[in-house]
Design goal:
With about 270 residues, the chain is of the alpha+beta class. It contains 8 helices and 11 strands. The chain folds into 3 domains: about 55 residues, Complement Module, domain 1, CATH 2.10.70; about 110 residues, Beta-Lactamase (2-Layer Sandwich); about 60 residues. The strands form 3 sheets. A 5-stranded antiparallel sheet has the order 5-4-8-7-6, with helices on both faces. A hairpin with a 4-residue loop joins strand 4 and strand 5. It is elongated and about 100 Å long.
């Protein structure tokens, strides 16, 4: 132990720590705590303590491994502390995110908005600005632990920004979040191709609807029938009941039983 620098190391703090592995392979944490100073602030007395942190260190290492596994999916990962409006970098793979690269950076809200202006295509900027609005996060994250927003950057690549709640206060409001971004250009292109294929198919038919058999919902893709006016693009519940009613209103009685059997989801698998 080098006591010659203890005044310098404890100049602005009353405690310092050091983690180390003991001879028997167990992790320990050593700590100095100032117990006395003279008139000019120099340390005159200090307590030296050692604690067993082997279990804690193992849990931290496993958590870090999980975080790193998750972070491999994402281009950037930062932790945001909402009460202090600060953030800390976990991973930074973006040439635009250099201002987010240190620990405990102040003005997280302001800097994220600046980052948005730097990275975002003008067409996506307004929507991303709403996503970065910290004042609405408690309501947006009230029922969910994660929210996302997709945007195009100035390199014409698509990204998905995501907030994940990592800690809530006693009232349930988020106090710590992970902010993550990932490239989704290939995913967007596949979705657009799928949409084009669905549109091509839909041109052949009077009406096109998609069923979620598990959730018993139905969504409208193309509407060409007055009897289906109540079905919107958003998923509607009670799909079975809706189409049984359609059969009653639309189908000739001679063919009604055949249609009911056709709409019987239980026999589809």
């Amino acid at each position: 132990m080098d006591f010659s620098k203890i005044d310098e190391r404890l100049k602005d703090s009353n405690t310092i720590t050091c983690e180390f592995k003991s001879g028997d392979g167990q992790w320990r944490k050593a700590r100095f705590i100032v117990s006395g100073r003279n008139a000019d602030g120099r340390v005159t007395n200090a307590m030296y303590l050692v604690e067993d942190i082997d279990v804690e260190k193992g849990e931290r290492d496993r958590l870090n491994d999980r975080i790193m596994s998750i972070s491999n999916i994402f281009n950037t990962v930062h932790e945001i502390d909402l009460p202090t409006d600060t953030f800390t970098e976990i991973k930074n793979g973006s040439k635009y995110a250099r201002d987010l690269a240190s620990e405990g950076v102040p003005k997280a809200q302001e800097t994220l908005r600046y980052y948005g202006k730097m990275v975002c295509d003008p067409a996506s900027l307004e929507e991303l600005g709403k996503f970065f609005d910290f004042s609405t996060l408690p309501s947006r994250l009230k029922e969910n632990d994660t929210i996302t927003s997709e945007f195009k950057n100035k390199d014409k690549n698509w990204l998905r920004a995501r907030f994940i709640v990592s800690k809530r206060d006693e009232t349930g409001n988020p106090v710590k979040l992970l902010y993550l971004t990932e490239y989704i250009t290939a995913e967007r292109e596949e979705r657009e191709k799928l949409t084009e294929r669905i549109s091509s198919i839909a041109n052949i038919y009077m009406s096109v609807h998609e069923f979620d058999i598990v959730e018993n919902t139905v969504s409208m893709i193309k509407l060409g029938n007055e009897f289906l006016d109540d079905i919107g693009q958003a998923p509607q519940p009670h799909a079975r009941e809706i189409f049984r009613k359609v059969a009653e209103d639309l189908v000739d009685p001679e063919f009604y039983e055949d249609c009911v059997r056709f709409f019987d989801f239980s026999t589809l698998p």
